[in-house]
Amino acid sequence: MTINVLFFGPLAEIVGNAIEMPVVSTLHELEQKLFEQFPLLKDKKYALSVNEKIVSGNVDLEEGFTIAFLPPFSGG
Amino acid sequence: MTINVLFFGPLAEIVGNAIEMPVVSTLHELEQKLFEQFPLLKDKKYALSVNEKIVSGNVDLEEGFTIAFLPPFSGG
Amino acid sequence: MSENKIKNIFRSGAIAAEFIADSIAKHSAKKDIGAHSIFLGQVRADIINDKTVAAIEYTAYEEMALKKMQEIREAIFSKYKLTCMHVYHSLGVIKAGELCLFVFTSSPHRRAAIDACNEVVERIKKELPVWGKEVFEDETHQWKENK
Amino acid sequence: MSENKIKNIFRSGAIAAEFIADSIAKHSAKKDIGAHSIFLGQVRADIINDKTVAAIEYTAYEEMALKKMQEIREAIFSKYKLTCMHVYHSLGVIKAGELCLFVFTSSPHRRAAIDACNEVVERIKKELPVWGKEVFEDETHQWKENK
To answer: Which of A1, B7, B29, C109 could cross-link to B12 by cystine, CB 3.0-4.6 Å?
Structure first.
């Protein structure tokens, strides 16, 4: 009953590249949990993706989902 | 007391690449002379340059000038 | 249709000029092409607070980036009359002066190739989950942010 | 200033991919460049009234074209913040599939390189006294006209 959470760029410096954690019911709940554990994350600018799609607002999470914290892109 | 007249692209097929001819006083006079000698030239689309600059309207000519008959460009 | 297969745009390390030449040369067999448009990104030795950028280290959320790139590719092919399109993006440490992005579009007439290339570059910068870490000569770093 | 010296843009025969690679590679020493934009013109094997174009033979009023190109170069350098700009145009017989035009602009940021490249290509096609004779496979020909 877990979800995978990925962190990239400057966010990976705070949290690490990836954590596997027990499933939580929504994206907001996930963020709150991570803010408690990694207070530095709270002030960072990022978008969120669920299963490789950018999402906005709150989203229900299910077992096996992959969530990613995506700081501003700087490719090219 | 001559001028040089150059022809490019399809016009060179009618007249040849270049002719040296006695100076005439204006560009219009030059065109008239050439139309008599090369009637096919008359129906062709072209711009004129005097000493490597595109000109419009009539222009006075002097000894040593280079006039070019320039069909529509198709470089690149 | 070749534009529907997911392609891996990522390359480890810098993009070599010879690779670009090979890519160009391969197109001489496609005799309906009249115009190629190429964009190359090169790592700048920017000076930021008296420190000089020695390299950019690129990382990506690769699976997501490739899906997004595929979406961009399909949108571009339906918008422009292209003969082909190739995109390569470096990952890893790319030194100042080296090439990190190669976008290559070809079409019968120039407008499609040029406009498509331009749009692909803009979308790559804006939409691909790729990050560049500017590494200074003293080995400190800062994270780039695209404007 | 290098942009004020008249450069010969004309090359006899097709532009080779290796020549383009060399030209790109030379820019790795210029560490303030962040973006290169390249346009390549390739001869199309167009089919016109059932006849296929085998080659284009290019001729030019060279002295006038080089002066005009210099004028364009100066206008482009005063309009865009470019690091450098290179233009090569083929003369003579260029076979279908071969390259006949190479425009290469570089700048710190992409907008200047891309916009300058685009403008140079348009001006070359419109303003340079260059003519292309489309030679068909049966050796008949017709004269191209730029749109």
So the answer is: B7
